[in-house]
Structure formats: C-alpha cells, structure tokens
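Protocol step 4 of 5: obtain the predicted structure for the target chain.
Materials: sequence only (see below). No template structures provided, no constraints applied. The aim of this step is simply to have a reference model before the mutagenesis design in step 5. Sequence pasted as it appears in the construct record:
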Amino acid sequence: MEKQRAALVTGAGKGLGAAFARGLAADGCAVMVNNRSHDGQPSSAKHVSDTLIAEGFTASHDDHAVDGEGAADAIIGHAIETSGGLDVLVLNAGITGPAAKVGALTDADIRAVMEINFHANTALIDAALPYLMASAAGRILFIASSAGLYGVRGRASYAASKGALIAYARTLADELARSSVRVNILAPYAATNMTAGQGETLNQSLHPDNAAAAAVWLTRPVCQRTGEIWLAGADYFGRAAAMESLGGGTPGATADWFGENVKQLSAMENGREHSGAEAAFADFFQRAQNIPTE
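Step 4 output (structure tokens):
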C-alpha cells in the first residue's frame, strides 16, 4: 500500500489556508493544520483539523505562531513526529500590516510584516528542507500575492514582503532544479478576513475553496513544473512571469538616442522570460554583443 503523503499548511485556521488544507486532505494527504493560538480563544487549527477528521480524513493540528522563538524547528519537528516525514509544505501564514502610504509607515511596521511574511518562511524552509529532500516527491508551495508582482497602494510593506518571497522561492526552485523537490508560487484572489479589511468589493465566487485546485495540483507528485508563479481565484487560473523586452542598442549610445527609441526598446510583443538572473544576463549580454556596428 502506498504511503500517505504528509502535508503541512501554515496559517490554515481559516480562509485560504483552511481551503488548502481541505483540498490536500481530500487529495489523500495526511494534513497538519498550523495556525497561531490566541489566549482565551479556541484553537482555530484544531477546529479545522477536527472537522477534517470528522469527515473521514487524516489530520492533526499545530498551534505555534510561525514567527515565534524557535517556531520553525518546533513546527517541522511536530509534523515529522506526527507523520514520520514531510512531502508537502504550503507556506500560507501572513499578515497585511497597517494600511499606510510610503512615508507614513514606521520602520517597526515594515519589519513586523517582513518578519512573518518573509523571515518566518525562510526559517521554515531551513528546517523542512532535509525532510522534503528525503521525500520521493517533495513539494513546496509559497503563497504570495499579485501585490508582490505589481505593488499595491497603501500596502508597500505587504507588497515588498511578497515580492521578496517570490524572488526567494524562484531562487530556491533554481537551486533545487536537479533534485526531486519542486517549488512553485501561488498568488490567490479570495474573499478572506485579510482582504475584507481592505475595503474591496467581493462576491461568493471568490470563496477560498475556488483557488484551492491549483494548490492541490502544484503539490502533487505528478507536478514537475517548478519556479512558476500562478494566479488563482473564482475557479479561474493563469500563470504570471517576469518578462524582458527584446530591446536594442547602438554603438556609443547616448541619452538622446535612448529617448528617441524608448518606445521600441520597451515593446513587449516579443518579450521573453528566464529561469533565473544568470540566464537573463547571459541572454542580455548575447544580444548586446550582436549590436550592428554600422
């Protein structure tokens, strides 16, 4: 009998994390539901876990805050102790931070968001990677945001944290490309407690469950794609990518020449994407070496 895959989902006490946990459990995983506990309140992670167990799935829960002292080792250690291994890691825990324009944010505000959205995740990767490497099909899914691709007014610290997470995840995917571990990024659109505070108009089609299909497939053993950014929401899915224009050049280029040709240089019709910065530079430099001399 094939061993049941073991999955850990952080920030899964509600919203998107709970939806991912439900999807993975239905897909056959033994799921550990992680979410920070709050004094005097019932454990949201236990509630999701108990619900899954009542529905006939295999689940457990963990109440550590991802940014707590020693939390990464404690969370991963708990997962290994419970399931004997780790095959799937979904890094969903995060906060938006205060709504404020650049200049009104304090350094403490920015650092608090980065601590949870970025540093806590890198610590979890450090703790989990040996176990994921030992798995026949280790899968890591970073939950990011389109804010990390484009920025978002009034949420610079949140956008910066997600942008950093995307760059980190793509670097990790490149470094692990020759291993069996696959790493991808999901930027979901969903109506959650987090987004409700941003004054957005949302409807039922944006239920968190309607973004879960991508998370489930990207963490399956059959998924061999890696280093990709996916958008998901309202049962609609698409891929995002960093693109470079074909560009152009001329010997002895001047600022005037650049300005005269800026429209053509910026055209993205024949744009291309790259697996990493090294590949991007190699392609750019090759094009630069082919500038016509006359």
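Step 4 remarks: The chain has two domains: 6-240, 242-294. The CA atoms of residues 167 and 249 lie 28 Å apart.
Proceed to step 5.
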